[in-house]
Amino acid sequence: MRDVAIIAFAQLPAVRRDTEREEVELVQPVVTAALAQAGLDRRDVGFTISGSCDYLLGRPFSFVAALDAVAPWPPIAESHVEMDGAWALYEAWARLQCGDVDTALIYAYGKSSLGELPDVLVQQLDPYYLAPLGADAISLAALQARALLDSGRADERRLAAVAARSRRAAAANPCAQRRSRREVDELLAEPYLVAPLRKHDCPPISDGACAVVLAAGDVARRLVPRPAWIRGIDHRIEPHQLGHRDLTRSPSTAEAAARAGAGPDAAPFDLVELHAPFSHQELILRDALGLPTDDGTADGIDDGDGGDGPAINPSGGALAANPMMVAGLTRLGEAAARLMAGDGRRALAHATSGPCLQQNLVCVLETDGGAP
Amino acid sequence: MDVLSAPYVLEYTYQRSTGPVIGRFLTALRDGRLEGVRTTTGRVLMPPLEYDPATGEATGEPVPLPPDGVVTTWAWVATPRPGHPLDRPFAWALIRIDGADTAMLHAVDAGAADAMRTGMRVTARWRAERTGSILDLACFVPVAGEAP
After folding, report:
1. What letter would DSSP give residue A20?
2. Smallest CA–CA separation between B68 and chain A, in Å?
3. What residues of A are in contact with residue B94 (Cβ under 8 Å)?
4. Pairing, β A346-353 against β A207-216
5. Chain A residue at shortest CA distance from B54
6. How many domains would you assign to chain B?
7. Hey, is the C-beta of B96 within 8 angstroms of any chain A C-beta?
8. Model pLDDT for residues A6-63, shown as the tens digit of each residue
9. Is residue B4 part of a domain?
10. Which residue of A35, A332, A336, B109 shows the fewest CB atoms closer than 10 Å?
11. Is residue B11 part of a domain?
12. Beta carbons within 10 angstroms of residue A371's beta carbon
């Protein structure tokens, strides 16, 4: 395998509704900032790929319009996935393994605010058994949350603790959208949205964009002082029908982790970025990844407050900002940015797609040489 | 600054074939019957699929099933959305139909959240006019005497 690293990450502050900018105007600033960080000109990029969703934008082939932001003339080598940008990064990593190009630009964008997001997301479901019922994403997640509560492996207080921890962390992240501190008891006093989920258990609706630059081997070493090397990356999927799965477990995450080198015997991580749009999903993911679900601190939810485990979602995670198609790639970018800044040496990043954690991607990142 | 906006409706008005397995299931719904399908390993999938997710093998014979089952998990919708199957508060549920090894999604018209619990028995309520759709099942309702 060829050594490939994340060498730059840029993102827009997530907002509830960006009424003034078109998609291409969201992409241009993050692409420009990421290339500047990497010290690359647009002409130097070997491969360009994006992740987005036409259903969000209500416009077929919308990614073609966004290409203006990357200057596709003279012609460039370009691809697109109708998925979260984390899967675009996977394709770029695989592309760099071919050996004929050394750099790749990945960007993702999503204006989740343009339509009624719950109704738009119904369109990702099976058209015969699920979509006609209008089964929105929050309702499906609530079925999963109830199954987890019924299993006895979580209670509503632990879900609220995940949300409270996310808000504490997000207060320090200028790109997060939901940044006001709330205590667990305060959150538990709120009414249900779709029981057993309350509003704080669900992600905000966000508009946003982000971009990542990958580089291989010596090119990465030449461009930045501390590349975040991709030591392993894998993604796995489960059956679509929810009633065919054990919703309280994430075997696809466990399998992807094992293949990415983050299995049960893996060395410990300094930080972890999990793409858990719903609070209970963080607990299911931790379980699948063998991360402690109780670190011995008062709320049992580690946020670097004295527990033994790695820092979980120091960015605040998807509960603090969830631009569709962007939030997964953001987890990889956030983890890499922290390593590149010298804030840890080894990180695990995760992205998810589909209802109730149907598909999961796991990436192990490391820097050379330890502390700065 | 004025922000100009324009409405835009995106539609794909395709006609699709439902295929031999899903089509047969939808036909059974139109007739007011539930029908699963047996896999090569002997499991009964409900709702039926053309291929067994566990093996990739084509599924086999249809299996007639009763309109009754057990709630394996549920969620309470206090404020239904316009696209939901009921216009009053209801529960989503995964329902394992008796004789099936998997569960199907549908709505349960239970009146109130405290009438719901995991493990409760429910039975189908059929729509009078059926067209061959999952919505031919209006919803499920708690079996009498099953209140917690």
Report:
1. S
2. 16
3. 143, 242-243
4. unpaired
5. A239
6. 1
7. yes
8. 999 999 999 999 988 989 999 999 999 999 999 999 999 999 999 999 989 888 888 9
9. no
10. B109
11. no
12. 8
- Vertex B95 angle, CA B92 and B101, to 5°: 150
Question: Which residues are registered as beta bridge partners of A361?
Answer: A235, A351
CATH code for A117-204+228-366? 3.40.47.10
Determine the Cα–Cα distance for residues A244 and B66; give it in Å rounded to an integer. Answer: 19
- Please name the fold of domain A4-115+205-223: Peroxisomal Thiolase; Chain A, domain 1 (3.40.47)
Q: What is the DSSP letter of A348?
A: E
Please indicate whether, in this complex, the C-beta atoms of A195 and B78 are within 8 angstroms of each other: yes
- pLDDT tens sequence across B34-61: 999 999 999 999 999 999 999 999 999 9
Q: How many CB atoms lie within 10 A of CB A351?
A: 29
Q: Which amino acid is at B16?
A: R
Q: Look at residue A372 and tell me whether its pLDDT is greater than 60.
A: no
Instruction: Using an 8 Å CB-CB cutoff, list chain B residues near A136.
Output: 81, 83
Within a domain: B2: no
ipTM of the prediction: 0.94
Give residue B57's domain range.
Answer: 19-142
Q: Above pLDDT 90, what percent of chain B?
A: 86
Residues of chain A with Cβ-Cβ distance to B77 below 8 Å are 139, 194
Pair of tokens at residue A162: 């995940």
Residues paired with residue A271 on neighbouring β-strands, in sequence order? A311, A347
Contacts of A147 in chain B (CB under 8 A): 72-73
Asked if residue B101 belongs to a domain, the reply is yes
Domain ranges for chain A: 4-115+205-223, 117-204+228-366
